[in-house]
Amino acid sequence: MTLGSKIQVFVIDDHPMIRKGLQSEIENDLTLKFIGSASSIKDALPIIGFKAVDVLVVDISLKDENGLLEFTNIRKKQPNLKIIFFTIHRDWEYLQKAAMLGADGYLLKSDSADRILSQLYS
Q: SMART domains attached here (predicted)?
């Protein structure tokens, strides 16, 4: 990302309404640019490998996938990528595991839009 350019965000979530809601909020923010989404990490990896992604927002509990378990694979392929977990899980063990893995953020789906967006550019 260069000075003055928008922060490019990619979203991975298996719920279409969540992806659409995040897309809408990101597109309405002047400092962010929505560059795509996928319903699975498997579908996202080839895409984010070819796009200039600054921030990846990924659900921890995806259908047939675990965002925490896949984190290491993503980080190996994209070491400079900011990865933020986005989840319904309030459990301390999830937050602790995300922190131990080196996640750049942990957001709850119940958080306000302002809080979510501020994490994307902080």
A: REC
Query: Is pLDDT of 54 > 90?
Result: yes
Q: What is the DSSP letter of 52?
A: -
Contacts of 103 (CB under 8 A, 6+ apart): 71, 83, 84, 85
For range 15-27, the mean pLDDT: 96
| Contact (Cβ atoms closer than 8 angstroms) between residue 82 and residue 56 | yes
Q: What homologous superfamily is domain 7-120 in, according to CATH? A: Response regulator (3.40.50.2300)
Q: CA 2 to CA 68: how far, in whole Å?
A: 29
Domain map (residue ranges) of the chain: 7-120
| Structure token digits, residue 93 | 């063990």
Rounded Cα distance, 100 and 92, in Å: 12
